[in-house]
């Protein structure tokens, strides 16, 4: 039997087959072809009915998922402005189109917000009337039995010597024992079960609204920033301490959680043998943090953040920070410190820039600025054994290649610069002895002497590690998690619970024997309904056993013919 046939059958059963679902029925209205046109209020009502239909809600949900695709494939300003600028520089043709379509700010774009708001309104407009209807169904009793129970998809009947009242009382007890809502309805018992199906359906859609609210609340009041910290350095949760910081439009900087922490050490271990050689095994950042004057220690691991009040500190990346010392032409130390370098592959081959902006003078006392492009590998394969790329992430054979420049770094122009890149537009490259003539490979403890008495740079034996942390406040996460769990629970209930009705009619037949009829009707066809009805019938026959069928009278045998001897006589 098709779904359409089932629906028509339920419609033909009147009240007994009605309201098995709170799904709104399409209003065909009294519109007559060629009749009068709709007025303003008529069009508004039509648009509202379309918007609040489940069909449109599903379309909007699909559009929302589809609209999120550009946000996951195209760099977003809200996540990383540097990647956005790099993308724009590499795609000059697509950039104007993407900017007009707001593809670099998908989640705050006009079209994404419109889909989001329409979905929100659609779900509310669909759920509110269904909720009131469901509450009304909970307060009402199951409808009485239809006149012809034998028309229902699950049906059985038998005859018993028990009295009709006794059968109905036994049926009421059996149905209530199986957690049916049951009551006497005339000469029958009406029962219903499976209300949690509709409850689950409503919970699922309410949970979607909760998740939408949580998403909006989180976007408005969130804060998220990143900080790269070298071993031994610290961080205080103030706006000026962040390397980058993003927040919602309703977030105030005075809402930042007051705390600070210091990166005491970073530990990273890697698989040394086998097909998974180089795979990280341990990433741990040992920190000491303070909140309200109390000093504490903690270990931050991947997916195990440090939680301080409403803030969470996540470990997201790590690398190496070689310690270098730069001296000017007169032998004066003008720079000494750890320089974080950024990894470019899984074996932590790293690049970066060393900038000496103040205090440097050449041998003649002339003020200049120095810059060095650094290329670092924690495990060098060795001279003549391939290109200078790391063979393993650990510090087994560290080597650093340096290329020096002198002139102006361009930091006085007022334009922001990337600290990991060197602007050589106004600089001249040093030509040094050894190496390639312009770059030298240094082992820990070695020094590269700059030409013409310009000074030197030393790669110290002390190599520190750095860790990158994300400090975030997401006030809507708990609400979103609650909505997600509720949505899964509601969807499970709506898929695996069947709402069904059962009627048991017991009347005295013309021959004085009680005739028992039992039938069931479900919201959708299922093989479980006849099975359940059979179990109920077996339980009920214990109280109202069927009578043995009356044997039909046997035909009287014909008279025996006379014996052959007498016939011969």
Automatic annotation (TrEMBL):
It is a multi-pass membrane protein. Pfam families: ResB. The chain crosses the membrane at residues 56-74, 110-132, 202-221, 478-497. Residues 1-30, 538-569 are annotated as: Disordered. Keywords: Cytochrome c-type biogenesis, Membrane, Transmembrane, Transmembrane helix. The keyword Transmembrane helix applies. Residues 54-533 form the ResB-like domain. This is Cytochrome C biogenesis protein.
């Amino acid at each position: 039997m098709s779904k359409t046939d089932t629906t028509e059958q339920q419609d033909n059963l009147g009240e007994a087959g009605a309201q098995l679902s709170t799904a709104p029925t399409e209003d065909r209205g009294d519109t007559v072809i060629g009749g009068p046109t709709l007025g303003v209020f008529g069009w508004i009502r039509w648009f509202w009915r379309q918007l609040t239909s489940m069909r449109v809600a599903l379309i909007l949900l699909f559009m929302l998922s589809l609209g999120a695709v550009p946000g996951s494939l195209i760099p977003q300003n809200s996540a990383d402005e540097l990647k956005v600028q790099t993308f724009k520089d590499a795609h000059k043709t697509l950039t104007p189109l993407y900017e007009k379509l707001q593809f670099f700010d998908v989640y705050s774009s006009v079209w994404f917000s419109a889909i989001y708001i329409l979905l929100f309104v659609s779900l509310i407009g669909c759920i509110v009337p269904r909720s009131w209807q469901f509450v009304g169904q909970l307060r009402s009793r199951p409808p009485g039995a239809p006149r012809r129970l034998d028309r229902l998809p699950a049906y059985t009947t038998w005859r018993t010597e028990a009295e009709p009242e006794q059968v109905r009382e036994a049926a009421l007890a059996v149905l209530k024992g199986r957690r049916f809502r049951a009551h006497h309805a005339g000469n029958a018992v009406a029962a219903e079960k499976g209300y949690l199906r509709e409850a689950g359906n409503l919970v699922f859609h309410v949970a979607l609204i909760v998740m939408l609210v949580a998403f909006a609340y989180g976007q408005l009041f969130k804060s998220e920033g990143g900080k790269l910290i070298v071993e031994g350095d610290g961080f205080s949760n103030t706006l000026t301490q962040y390397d980058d910081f993003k927040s919602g439009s309703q977030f105030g900087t005075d809402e930042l959680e007051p705390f600070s922490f210091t990166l005491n050490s970073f530990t990273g271990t890697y698989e040394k043998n086998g097909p998974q050689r180089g795979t990280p095994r341990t990433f741990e950042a040992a920190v000491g943090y303070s909140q309200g004057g109390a000093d504490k220690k903690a270990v931050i691991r991947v997916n195990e953040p440090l939680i301080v009040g409403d803030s969470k500190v996540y470990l997201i990346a790590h690398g190496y920070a070689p310690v270098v010392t730069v001296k000017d032409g007169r032998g004066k130390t003008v720079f000494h410190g750890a320089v974080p370098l950024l990894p470019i592959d899984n074996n932590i081959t790293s690049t970066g820039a060393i900038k000496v902006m103040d205090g440097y003078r050449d041998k003649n006392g002339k003020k200049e600025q120095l810059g060095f492009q650094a290329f670092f590998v924690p495990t060098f394969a060795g001279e003549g054994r391939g290109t200078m790329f790391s063979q393993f992430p650990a510090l087994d054979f560290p080597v650093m290649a340096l290329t020096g420049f002198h002139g102006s770094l361009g930091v006085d122009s007022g334009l922001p610069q990337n600290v990991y890149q060197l602007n050589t537009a106004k600089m001249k490259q040093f030509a040094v002895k050894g190496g390639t003539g312009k770059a030298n490979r240094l082992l820990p403890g070695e020094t590269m002497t700059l030409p013409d008495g310009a000074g030197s740079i030393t790669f110290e034996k002390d190599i520190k590690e750095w860790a990158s942390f994300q400090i975030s406040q997401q006030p809507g996460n708990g609400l979103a998690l609650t909505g997600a769990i509720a949505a899964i629970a509601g969807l499970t209930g709506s898929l695996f619970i069947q709402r069904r009705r059962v009627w048991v009619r017991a009347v005295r037949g013309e021959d004085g024997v009680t005739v028992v009829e039992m039938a069931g009707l479900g919201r959708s066809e299922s093989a479980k309904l006849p099975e359940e009805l059979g179990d109920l019938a077996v339980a009920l026959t214990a109280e109202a056993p069927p009578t043995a069928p009356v044997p039909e009278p046997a035909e009287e045998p014909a008279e025996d013919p006379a014996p052959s001897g007498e016939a011969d006589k």
